[in-house]
Design brief:
By secondary structure, this protein is α/β, with parallel strands linked by helices. The protein has helices at about 45-55, 75-85, 100-115, 130-150, 170-175, 195-200, 225-240, 255-260, 325-365, 395-400, 430-450; strands at about 125-130, 160-165, 180-185, 205-215, 245-250, 270-280, 290-295, 305-310, 315, 370, 380-385, 410, 420-425. The strands form 3 sheets. It has a 7-stranded mixed sheet with strand order 1-7-6-5-4-2-3, with helices on both faces.
Length: about 475
């Protein structure tokens, strides 16, 4: 969440209250103009407070047109009703809300089966507030396992974690917060994610694990998890180093099982110790819910697990957050029941079809070069063609915002800082009809963009809605 650094004095002001907001008497019932950064002294009518907040939120972008976010922006009304009925249930109170806790357990079991755990009945896992917390938990487990194996050297030796430079920012946070050295495999040429052999070469006796990304946020591509495991197998044969793999499947772990069933990336690979996903991304649930699973109890050190009474028995919990609503977990279980494997396959295939079709439309315009085509994650990235000099991707992003589209433009990281791209995320709810409208708006902008004397966007940070 954003970190507030205080409110400048110049921004302090009062809200303007329309006389019609008075619930009965427009004058007598009208509240005085409340301050924006201090608690108002008197209370106001609920209808007035509701209207003031709603007026300000009108200036937010339309979530359905936000092609920067991976987060679910549409669910069925029935799911919304269930969430409203469960928003007052504290997920941490397992003994007070045993049925909600049971639905969480069922979701973990369903995911363990989906991800081919050796024995889904013994796989351990938990819900989280999202993939960022799930990654933190997985990283903690990797570090603790490494520390136990190296008790004679730790804390003197500094642990490290190997990953591609394209990882989500939560992994940088993990390394910072838990004092782990981040060893990053840079991008090279047209390879925009981790190289298995390069990752293996960065490993040593202090490596707690390697992170593989099933669906890079930069371009939507899958990292080669099986090849990564094979490279680490070879490393173990040469050196004896046994390095586990965590799969960050924030998006892809809810796409590949349905659309890429022959792709081996999950617990079928013995080296994969843990997997996370975002239920609120391609898990098709409103934010915020994520999931973290370990292949068995041995992969999650027991001392990290806290236990509470559950129906007179023992209920293990593993979390960074404490109180949070059970609504999203209930919504995840509803969605699992509602869709099943066939329904998820249909929804994800529809999203991939929209992505690949739209990518083809963009390429056919002639001004752009595709980096990916939406045939892995339903996500594709593209940049301007080499002969386009009148405008850049930041100009395109800025102009599309004028029509309500939020299409992020950003520069790639180390070794490819020369490459700036646009990225389109196709989610459930972004239909073929909406994709057609986006393609038409983009085509309509091109004549104006081509007439520019040069790229016009000076503040590239303000031109994009992409914040990883």
């Amino acid at each position: 969440m954003p970190f507030s650094e205080g409110t400048p004095r110049t921004r302090e002001r009062r809200l303007s209250v329309n006389p019609f907001y008075g619930p009965a008497n427009p004058l007598g019932d009208m509240a005085e103009a409340p301050p924006t950064h201090r608690l108002p002294d008197p209370p106001m009518a609920p209808a007035t407070a509701h209207q003031l907040v709603r007026d300000e939120l009108m200036l937010d972008g339309n979530a359905r047109l936000n092609l920067a976010t991976f987060v679910t922006t549409w669910m069925e009304p029935e799911a919304g009703i269930l969430m409203a009925e469960c928003r007052d249930k504290n997920m941490i109170d397992k003994d007070e809300y045993p049925r909600t806790a049971e639905l969480e357990r069922r979701c973990v079991a369903m995911l363990a089966d989906l991800w081919n755990a050796p024995d889904p009945a013994t796989a351990v896992g938990c819900s989280t507030t999202g993939s960022s917390e799930a990654c933190m938990l997985a990283g903690m487990a990797l570090k603790r396992r490494w520390a136990k194996r190296n008790a004679d050297r730790y804390p003197g030796a500094r642990p490290n974690l190997v990953m591609g430079v394209n990882v989500q920012v939560c992994w940088d946070k993990f390394c910072n917060f838990w004092e782990v050295e981040a060893r990053l495999v840079p991008m090279e040429g047209e390879r925009f994610h981790l190289d298995p052999q390069a990752a293996a070469e960065l490993c040593d006796e202090n490596t707690i694990g390697v992170v593989g990304i099933l669906g890079s946020t930069f371009d939507g591509s899958y990292e080669p998890i099986a090849d990564l495991c094979a490279a680490l197998d070879a490393l173990q044969e040469r050196t004896g180093l046994d390095v586990p793999v965590h799969v960050d499947g924030a998006s892809g772990a809810m796409v590949a099982p349905f659309l890429d069933e022959d792709l081996v990336w999950d617990f079928r690979l013995p080296r994969v110790a843990s997997i996370n996903t975002s239920g609120h991304k391609y898990g098709l649930v409103y934010p915020g819910v994520g999931w973290a699973l370990w292949r068995d109890a041995e992969a999650l050190p027991e001392e990290l697990v806290f236990r509470v009474n559950y129906l007179g028995g023992d209920m293990p919990t593993f979390a960074l957050n404490f109180s949070r609503p059970g609504a999203q977990v209930v919504a995840q279980y509803y969605t699992f029941l509602r869709l099943g494997r066939q329904g998820y396959r249909a929804v994800q295939q529809a999203a991939r079809d929209v992505a690949t079709e739209l990518a083809g439309r963009v390429e056919a315009l002639g001004d752009f070069r595709l980096l990916t085509r939406g045939d892995e994650l339903p996500v594709f990235a593209f940049t301007t063609a080499p002969d386009v000099t009148a405008y850049d991707v930041f100009d395109v992003s800025r102009r599309l915002r004028e029509s309500g589209w939020l299409v992020p433009a950003y520069t790639f990281p180390a070794n490819r800082e020369d490459l700036s791209v646009l990225r389109v995320v196709c989610r459930n709810g972004f239909s073929a009809d909406l994709a057609e409208l986006l393609a038409q708006d983009l085509e309509r902008l091109l004549p104006d963009l081509r007439r520019q004397p040069r790229p016009l966007t000076e503040d590239r940070g303000a031109a994009t809605s992409f914040h990883h």
